[in-house]
Backbone:
């Protein structure tokens, strides 16, 4: 009789344990994928797009040059260039976090980056009329993370 009374419990465990194991395996094996990446971008061995800057100051420099490229590009090229620009803006707080920036300053930088990213979604953002405002924002961002002297030398010698 004891065997029969354990039988419903055994059935429950028989089905629950494999289900829970599969669920835990799926959760444990999942990895975060950046849904912002364009599927047409070529990725390097680390899963990053080839255009990803090496550091914060390189990202700021790329944003400065890409603003003019987007402004002067045809509508066919503009969408691709815009996606690259937006992705680089998204990386700014991540690059800043890799430095010794204070939390309060990082929060200000994150806020500026978020506002810049929002601006890029407005029509006619990439125009000469907006360039002084964007340059000012990029100057502000750049001043928050001063370039490392060794980093500048290394970047200059490798290019």
Residues:
């Amino acid at each position: 009789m004891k065997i029969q009374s354990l039988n419903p419990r055994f059935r429950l465990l028989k089905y629950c344990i494999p289900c829970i194991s599969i669920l835990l395996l799926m959760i444990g094996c999942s990895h975060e994928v950046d849904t912002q990446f364009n599927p047409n971008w070529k990725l390097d061995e680390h899963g990053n797009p080839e255009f990803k800057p090496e550091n914060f100051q390189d990202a700021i420099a790329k944003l400065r040059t890409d603003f003019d490229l987007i402004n002067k590009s045809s509508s066919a090229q503009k969408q691709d260039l815009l996606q690259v620009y937006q992705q680089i803006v998204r990386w700014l707080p991540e690059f800043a976090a890799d430095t010794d920036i204070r939390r309060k300053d990082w929060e200000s930088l994150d806020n500026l980056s978020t506002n810049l990213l929002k601006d890029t979604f407005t029509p006619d953002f990439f125009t000469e009329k907006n360039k002084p405002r964007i340059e000012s924002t990029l100057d502000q961002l750049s001043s928050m993370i001063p370039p490392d002297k060794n980093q500048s030398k290394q970047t200059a010698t490798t290019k």
Residues 56-158 form one domain. The radius of gyration is 24 Å. The chain has two domains: 1-31, 56-158. The CA atoms of residues 64 and 135 lie 7 Å apart.
